[in-house]
Amino acid sequence: MPHLDLDLDAVTLTEQLVNIESVSQDERAIADAVEAALRPLDHLTVTRHGHTVVARTDLGRGERVVIAGHLDTVPVNDNLPARREGDLLHGLGTCDMKGGDAVILRLAKHVTEPNRDVTFILYEAEEIDAEFNGLTKLSASNPELMTGDFAILMEPSNAVVEAGCQGTLRVDVRTTGERAHSARSWKGVNAIHKASGILARLEQYDARRPVIDGLEYHEGLNAVFIRGGVAGNVLPDECVVEVNFRFAPDRSEAEAEQFVRDFFDGYDVTLTDSAPGALPGLDVPAAKAFVEAVGGEVNPKFGWTDVARFTGLGVPAVNFGPGDPMLAHKQEEHVPVEHIERCERLLRTWLGAGS
Amino acid sequence: MPHLDLDLDAVTLTEQLVNIESVSQDERAIADAVEAALRPLDHLTVTRHGHTVVARTDLGRGERVVIAGHLDTVPVNDNLPARREGDLLHGLGTCDMKGGDAVILRLAKHVTEPNRDVTFILYEAEEIDAEFNGLTKLSASNPELMTGDFAILMEPSNAVVEAGCQGTLRVDVRTTGERAHSARSWKGVNAIHKASGILARLEQYDARRPVIDGLEYHEGLNAVFIRGGVAGNVLPDECVVEVNFRFAPDRSEAEAEQFVRDFFDGYDVTLTDSAPGALPGLDVPAAKAFVEAVGGEVNPKFGWTDVARFTGLGVPAVNFGPGDPMLAHKQEEHVPVEHIERCERLLRTWLGAGS
């Protein structure tokens, strides 16, 4: 079993974590290593749930914070093992999000008497369908382990707080026609031609940019797939445009769906996927205090993250982790060493330990 | 080896041919059976070229006519064996075009002293890419076997002459954009949205219907495929619309291509496939005489057929065969018995034999 040494600095520990390959649904080795590293620590109660590991302090503090990171990565793309070059650490998962995981593990071991109780969660399968997600499973089997006054998801956010997240939904917008031999096209109805109006509306779409708690979100409505066609000599009888709507967290899922249905009024619209956004929640005292403790800067989170899951459980949550989210899922993903160090330092201080 | 009995009536012979499965590139058995049935006939010179069989009279007549039919079919679709129901024969290939093949075989055997020399060609692989087509191969290896004063292709045409054929070409019309995460779509350019203008032009297309030699053709410009998309959360950087142009035979391939390029002016257009049309050629005496002999009625041929290949070799050609072309390639394909009988009777008479 690969070994993790939590006494190493967080950057070297990130490197160790990166070198344990852990593509979604192949997290056994990394979860075993994480569990083995945490299990001996007397100040923590450690439990295992599938390939998700939870470690909690129980000091009877007035407040509890959840600090969470996923252990899986997107597929390998010729970007392993980790490689350090000057101030950057390169490799799959360096940015998304083993730098954050390393910080979590360091805090778990070394902040033995935090000023607030902490639940550390290192979980499986964030990069694939929600049904496999370790937090989905944990919220079903042990919801008590996810509760707290505040949650920090260590998703890459340039080591600055990114608050809330936008929601996302997907619809299939469909046209139908009637097949005919293309040599006698007047006998049929071309469904691809009928999709012209769908694309015209998308082209004219004007994105809403609402300001919520002082943060400017930015919606987006995009065709992500289009398909149609039967054979090279046949008029197609169906065309499907798959559309992804990223919506600001002031809309509910139902409102977002209604917006899309109205937008494509007159077309056949089928909802295929939906996840709610999360309001920034910066008016909650625990969130406000955290933002102040880590420097006061806050950006809106455009992508969907598991903060929405915590918000759904009534736990205010923010993203705060090393790495540039624009690099996530890219072959050339990397993380600045300084981001890892800064996150660890700021979180240690916030938890009442010396830096 | 399956046996063909050319003394049976043409309808029963059609049934025998249908029951020898011969999907494109699997024509060995049917070609063997055809060759074995023709080889013993003293008045014919029989040659074999791949799975194409050629049988010629050589009586020194003043005129030579080519009568041709393909032996292959589109894939089986739960429509074998042949099934006779009243006045219809059902099954794969009954219409396209073993009814015509049966007539050819009957003429080859029983019209031993035709008033014009005849080259009968039963060929392979018409239903797939042109490179495999028996006539493509024959025109390369033995072009002399395809020459004549006139050619009849026994493609389904409701037992009425269908003259000329429309040309066909295919282009890929492409848009490009720039990938970005769909949560930050303003960082990229959506190639699918840009295809809106391509579809809008197709929707507004107004088909030309030129009258040539008294026959009204009918052009058609249709998207037959559309594709684009990278992942459910990524702005697509490419969208391709595959467009099929069916053009009347008064345009050359080059003119047709230019029309399409002008039509999609401003877009990236790549020609992927092209086949010329064939003018009806009804001013040629041999064609005129044939039309009169079989009843005087002539319709335009909208689909592309191998008549274009003969026209390209300088041999005027028409389509004349049993079956409704609208039923070709359909699961429920069938042929009226009366069509087969009428074609045989009219061709026998035209070749100077009693009916």
From TrEMBL, chains A, B:
<keyword id="KW-0378">Hydrolase</keyword>
<dbReference type="GO" id="GO:0006526">
    <property type="term" value="P:L-arginine biosynthetic process"/>
</dbReference>
<dbReference type="Pfam" id="PF01546">
    <property type="entry name" value="Peptidase_M20"/>
</dbReference>
<keyword id="KW-0457">Lysine biosynthesis</keyword>
<dbReference type="GO" id="GO:0046872">
    <property type="term" value="F:metal ion binding"/>
</dbReference>
<keyword id="KW-0170">Cobalt</keyword>
<keyword id="KW-0479">Metal-binding</keyword>
<comment type="pathway">
    <text>Amino-acid biosynthesis; L-lysine biosynthesis via DAP pathway; LL-2,6-diaminopimelate from (S)-tetrahydrodipicolinate (succinylase route): step 3/3.</text>
</comment>
<dbReference type="InterPro" id="IPR002933">
    <property type="entry name" value="Peptidase_M20"/>
</dbReference>
<keyword id="KW-0028">Amino-acid biosynthesis</keyword>
<dbReference type="InterPro" id="IPR050072">
    <property type="entry name" value="Peptidase_M20A"/>
</dbReference>
<dbReference type="Pfam" id="PF07687">
    <property type="entry name" value="M20_dimer"/>
</dbReference>
<dbReference type="InterPro" id="IPR010174">
    <property type="entry name" value="Succinyl-DAP_deSuclase_DapE"/>
</dbReference>
<dbReference type="InterPro" id="IPR036264">
    <property type="entry name" value="Bact_exopeptidase_dim_dom"/>
</dbReference>
<protein>
    <recommendedName>
        <fullName>Succinyl-diaminopimelate desuccinylase</fullName>
        <ecNumber>3.5.1.18</ecNumber>
    </recommendedName>
</protein>
<dbReference type="GO" id="GO:0009089">
    <property type="term" value="P:lysine biosynthetic process via diaminopimelate"/>
</dbReference>
<dbReference type="GO" id="GO:0008777">
    <property type="term" value="F:acetylornithine deacetylase activity"/>
</dbReference>
<feature type="domain" description="Peptidase M20 dimerisation">
    <location>
        <begin position="167"/>
        <end position="263"/>
    </location>
</feature>
<dbReference type="GO" id="GO:0019877">
    <property type="term" value="P:diaminopimelate biosynthetic process"/>
</dbReference>
<keyword id="KW-0862">Zinc</keyword>
<dbReference type="InterPro" id="IPR011650">
    <property type="entry name" value="Peptidase_M20_dimer"/>
</dbReference>
<dbReference type="GO" id="GO:0009014">
    <property type="term" value="F:succinyl-diaminopimelate desuccinylase activity"/>
</dbReference>
<comment type="subunit">
    <text>Homodimer.</text>
</comment>
<keyword id="KW-0220">Diaminopimelate biosynthesis</keyword>
